[in-house]
Amino acid sequence: MTDEGTVYRQADDYDRRMSPYDPSAFPPFAVTVDLAVLTVRRHALCALVVRRGEPPFQGRWALPGGFVREDEDLATAAARELVEETGLIALSTRTAPSAPAAHPAATAGAAPHPPAAPPATAPAQDPPAALGKGAHLEQLATYGDPARDPRMRVVSVAHLALAPDLPAPRAGGDAHSARWAPVEALLGHEDAFGRDEEAVPLAFDHAQILADGVERARSKIEYSSLATAFCPPEFTVGELRRVYEAVWGVVLDPRNFHRKVTGTPGFLVPSGGTTTRQGGRPAQLFRAGGATVLNPPMLRPEV
Amino acid sequence: MTDEGTVYRQADDYDRRMSPYDPSAFPPFAVTVDLAVLTVRRHALCALVVRRGEPPFQGRWALPGGFVREDEDLATAAARELVEETGLIALSTRTAPSAPAAHPAATAGAAPHPPAAPPATAPAQDPPAALGKGAHLEQLATYGDPARDPRMRVVSVAHLALAPDLPAPRAGGDAHSARWAPVEALLGHEDAFGRDEEAVPLAFDHAQILADGVERARSKIEYSSLATAFCPPEFTVGELRRVYEAVWGVVLDPRNFHRKVTGTPGFLVPSGGTTTRQGGRPAQLFRAGGATVLNPPMLRPEV
DNA sequence: CAAATAGTGTCTTTTAGACATTATAAG
DNA sequence: CTTATAATGTCTAAAAGACACTATTTG
């Protein structure tokens, strides 16, 4: 039914170039991982950005990232970068392309591995680190526009990390090399441009990566228990609700939220304790339950 | 709070190695695209597979794919491969990672595999092509396990394509170089192993890629109008229902399905005509509406 | 006629969302 | 006391799902 022989016979071409005996037969790419690390700080969804010290985009903010090493898996590289940037240990890295019903429980995914401390390189002040804490880590998408890096052909496998609120990199500072910034400002929510320092567009295609990561997070907390990744090990229903409110940018009814979240099997398990850290009546403390898929889901309010 | 200097100062490292003046400073990768092309044939979800003519995995079935060219975007490469393999024109390719309102699509981990096909091997008869037709195309996930291809380091950016039923590659044939095969058989649905020819595991990590693609499709038709990508330009409600039944592997109530699908704004628009190609009372013909996000969603029946 | 598919309606259960009320802390 | 937050309950509207019934074709 089609032109003979031409159609899916590109395979010939493939094998010829795939031959290890002719390494110059295929175009070489650099492969990196970039990280969209999100957290909730002061009731706002924030991302970790680092300031670039060299061209291109010198002085601009960018997402943290680095090269994938010779014998390193993509998930391993992302976990390594996450440790290097934040001290966070990846708690879950799934091969699965997340889907509601398919998201298996994933706990330990990528191994911690050797942080491999770079020698003398850095003055490196204010690390936003919180060693010993865990974060959710998953692959986001891959970006490979030939022009995305002016220096060479780089394909970046972006990852999304969700972490509990971490200590500020350095309170009061202003010209540091790393910081948490509200995603609204980073993504230039129209009217925000020109006002704030971080309203300058991110380097490379990192604004697109971040936007994709934010949308992934926003949609995924609907159908999974991932919102708990933004919370400390023990948290209250109110704290979890404030996570949803910050990530979605909406206000939720505390009573309906409480009823729904406590009624979803496997979402939360009471830890026994209570706290008054939010003021008011003591609230029950919970831990994340084993469920990864929420049924029924938490639905974002309509437009 | 963390080890000084080591943390996010990988930027130095990054920039040093990124320098175009030292191309040997970063490890070179081959980058490919692999395609999980899905369609619905004879009430079963099927995938396009090609037979490998050379080692490794000689004689095994694999997903179609090929190298990303020097100055080619990832989406462009995937669209090119799709045309080469099937004659299908990519109708939609989104950079966006996940499902809009809901569900995150995928994140994937690692896996290897380049499809390789033998040159002389193929008489290349039966292309499952259907020139001039369109298909949905989107990025799925990226697989980069260092061992996924025994020959060299290959990172593959897998894509998912959804197409209407196409003419069989070659009816009656049995040892062709390309064919549609039910995903159940390809993924070795337990009891299916050993019975059928395609019960032999796919080459490389293609079973993982295909499984991820199938799960992406299954979840995405819940919250988007993507199921129409499996249908011809004009289709009936019954035909659309059979798509859902095939993809999900369930039986749906025709009456509730009809009420729901016609009641979802923007999902379907009547084209005016009717058809009796399914037998019985003439059915109204519809086209896909403009809506991409379904509200309310079509929910998969529970376990 | 029977058989098959299309399309509409009706009823019950479940869920979402609006909102009242009570409980227990801090200041 | 007031104020803030937590937790439970009640009501209504919408949606899901089970299922009866009618409509229009082919054989």
From TrEMBL, chains A, B:
Keywords: Hydrolase. Residues 112-121 have a biased composition (Pro residues). SUPFAM superfamilies: Nudix, Winged helix' DNA-binding domain. This is NUDIX hydrolase. It comes from the Bacteria. Residues 28-204 form the Nudix hydrolase domain. GO terms for molecular function: hydrolase activity. Pfam families: NUDIX, WHD_NrtR. Residues 96-131 are annotated as: Disordered. Residues 96-111 have a biased composition (Low complexity). Transmembrane segments: none annotated.
